[in-house]
Amino acid sequence: MATFRDNWPYTGVITREKFLFNETRLTAQLQLKGMTDEQIIEKVVSENLYQYPTDRMLRSMARTCLKRLAALGNSNLIKALATAPVEVAKQIDLYAMMCQYHLVWDFMITVIGEKYRTNNLTYGHIDLNVFINSLQEQHDNVAKWSDSTIKRIKRELNHLLIENDYLDSLKSTKLNPVIISPILEKAIKDNGDKVALIAFNCFD
Hints:
Layout: H1 21-32, H2 37-46, H3 55-72, H4 75-83, H5 86-100, H6 102-117, H7 125-138, H8 140-143, H9 147-163, H10 182-190
């Protein structure tokens, strides 16, 4: 497992640093052109590539996207995120978020992955509640999260599932069977993250 996960804290930043698929894909495309991080940030800001209202937001989200690409630790995945069909690229962005945020990693493996492993595809508010409550019991910083923060976190976790076709809508009560893209499956194995495969309904 990559060393960046050592002493990996739980944070609620996904309420701000969301799925950002279009932004991350654009950033990956700029990386493929050989641009440095600073050049990418300046281009994002000067041309308002993300269509945000302020330069500050543009710079902040550009840095977030660059960190997300770095978290992938795999140049082939960055290229695929930039150029592959949308459904494949979105799946890679989800894996990137798993690599970037401990909260997403645990949710996708211990909640969603376990649903597939046990062939229990029912899904609802209770699953999110049990997941968050368990974290709060084990981690003091999570216990301090406000109710509004927890509500936003739950919304973003569900949004990830909808974006990647695990759920059809917020009203869905059953997970869809998903199929991992071959390039992502290979990269996860190459990254030494085989435990993450169950989050994508893969048990090879």
